[in-house]
Amino acid sequence: MSNAVTWVEVSRAALKANYEALLSAVSENILLMPVIKSNAYGHGLLQVARALPKKRRWGFVVAETDEALLLRRVYPRERILLLSNFAFEDIPDLAAKQIDLAVYTEAQLPQLRRAQHAHIHVKVDTGTTRTGFLPRDLKLVARFLQQHKDIALAGVFSHFADSEGSKSAFTTTQIHRFKKALTELPRPEISHIACSAASLRYSKAHFGAIRPGIALYGLWPSESTKKAASALALKPVLEWKARVLQTKAVPAGTTIGYGRTYAMKRKGKVAVLPIGYGDGFDRALSNTAEVLVRGKRAKVAGRVCMNVTMIDVSHIPGVKTGDEVVLIGKQGKEEVSVEEMAKHAGTINYEITTRIRESLPRIIV
Predict the structure, then answer these.
(1) Which of the chain's ends, N or C, has fewer CB atoms near its CB within 10 Å?
(2) Catalytic positions, please?
(3) What pTM, to 2 d.p., does this model score?
(4) Contact 65, 94 (CB under 8 A)
């Protein structure tokens, strides 16, 4: 991308390898429901949708109305499940576009009565205490479905609270609750509860389909999941790159950036990058994170600004304007992982990729 100053590269081969690895972790009758919400965890919604294999793919899973509508325009016949963030008044229109809808509260039912031939996935709250019917409310749902035969029960699903953790007791409890919930509702086309961690760690959670998100992108939900599924290889899909905007030689004692939080101990060289917290490069990375230039690590110097960040390249000969800088990914023998950046920012890998500015170019490589 010669004209871009910062961009994201998405590896088709890595995405395919992760998809195949997840399929290999479940039996051959299990479908895969790839979660590509939040701009495919920052990787690019349409780029990922187009690159994903079709083998045993149920369809796509998203969280926002705009995501579902965009996918429907591009994929007129693909199954699309819209998980949560949609206006209830839009239910009839969404159903008319053959978008599967998550139904998780009684407040949705009046609009469902207005919809024709809706395909719904009833969500059961088995213990995460987010959206979902509590088990005691399922009789109401069963009666509603009995009274409205034109509404298709396309799915019943739930979500785990702690399947990434090292202890399994509560996850096992949720599986039992989900099984009981299935007995209280009509038989759905498909039942699904397993996120990435549960897909890899709990075979009893596979049911009719697994619903992986983070693992699709070659990132582990947690260290305990990585250890538990050590035989499985995941490949990071995303690399984030930028080009040096400017370099300048500065004398010893020069301070850098807002608040003058970084001072040059000796004369050296500073490079300015076209990324900042407005692009998703977290302000918490100030004075801590490292990036790669000419195959070497360079430290963030001073506070990350909204649109630019400075790095100390005094120890790297020949750095010049236009040089490629790797923020996440590999360059030469060095690598900056999403997990490394997350550690510096005091957050999780999910947030690092998801927060990369959506308007930055995503390029399939």
Answers:
(1) C
(2) 37, 258
(3) 0.95
(4) yes
